[in-house]
Amino acid sequence: MRNVRLLMTGLAVTMAGDSLMLLVFAIWIKTLTGSTGAAGLVLLCVSLPFALSPAFGWLVDRVRHRRFLVTVNCASAVMLLPLLAVRGRDDMWIVYVVAVLYGTSMVASSAALNGLLKELFTEERLASANGRVTTVQESLRLGGPLAGAALFGAFGGGTVAVVDAATFLVAGGAIALVRVSERTPERVEAHWRQEVSAGVRHLFAELTLRRTVLVAAVAWLSIGLVESVSFALADQGLHRPPEFVGVLASAQGVGAVIGGLAAARALARVGDVAGTGIGLAGFGVGNLVCVYAWLPSVLGGRVVSGFGLALFLIGFTTILQRKTPRPLIGRASTAAETLTSGPHCVAMGVGAALISLVDYRVLLVMTGIGTLGSGVVLAAGRGAPAGEPDAT
């Protein structure tokens, strides 16, 4: 229990910083430029490192996960400091660069966390552990985006960056105190290309993983289109200032908290794959509800989409952890990130360009239909239950 409390404390603190900072990146650019497309582009910068994540997976599988997480948290605190130099529009390139570094930190931490959770929890408790992590993360999003927007409005982005840097340091200290007996990974003498690509080969050799990753890639292609919609929805649809995006994010957080709490039971009842598909379909329905720009329907749609997204992410992560052996968990995790984040990044770029050219409701409909359809396909082709071999 001591290890679980320390890990969850460290994750909660660093996630609190993320909830403050991630939206502030976009608000900062929107304030400097007045452009919704430019604000959406900074979110693309955060996602870009996920396309290069197999290299991080190779590194994660060669080191002890707890120590790696501590190092990444400390380095992340340092990477935020250049934001203190941002004074005006001419300095906005610094925000973009730090956003890329932030994404790099996120992908490296995510792979190492998957490995550490696999060390700390049994197979049967992985879904519950993933649900707990998601619940903590999404609970913080209830007030985090609003607090970040408020801090930005009152004191500027530099203050938010300093607060976020402090959370990384506290998180690193808490994780450093976790006691876990991790074996030193064995070094396999193989060509680096074989080692880096081992995660991809594993994903496509395993039937359930292959089906889930391919459907998820299509789904993230749809999700990427809507990443830039929040500002247009707040501005053009609801006629609110950019900071109101924090309210929309908080509404989605409410649904995600509910999804995180319900995920373990839902996945146990219907199976990991079917539950993941149901989550995707729910996210699609939530986005379709938001097409009608009436505040109650938009907030309700955000709650539904948050629930669905949480269930989808927890199910996807649990399938990956259960179907992957420990020596491959880092490379398999980052390979899955690449295969899903690649389409996501492309779609985010397209969405950032389209948001200035087409009605935001068109993107909501495209995302809703794409994720709803992906969820139905995944839930209908359930595959083997978790822990059982796939049929050949």
From TrEMBL:
It comes from the Bacteria. Its main location: membrane. InterPro entries: MFS, MFS_trans_sf. One of its GO terms (cellular component) is plasma membrane. It is found in: Cell membrane. Keywords: Cell membrane, Membrane, Transmembrane, Transmembrane helix. The chain crosses the membrane at residues 6-29, 41-60, 66-86, 93-113, 213-232, 244-264, 276-295, 301-320. It is a multi-pass membrane protein. One of its GO terms (molecular function) is transmembrane transporter activity. PANTHER family: INTEGRAL MEMBRANE EFFLUX PROTEIN-RELATED (PTHR23513), MAJOR FACILITATOR SUPERFAMILY ASSOCIATED DOMAIN-CONTAINING PROTEIN (PTHR23513:SF6). This is MFS transporter. It comes from Actinomadura barringtoniae.
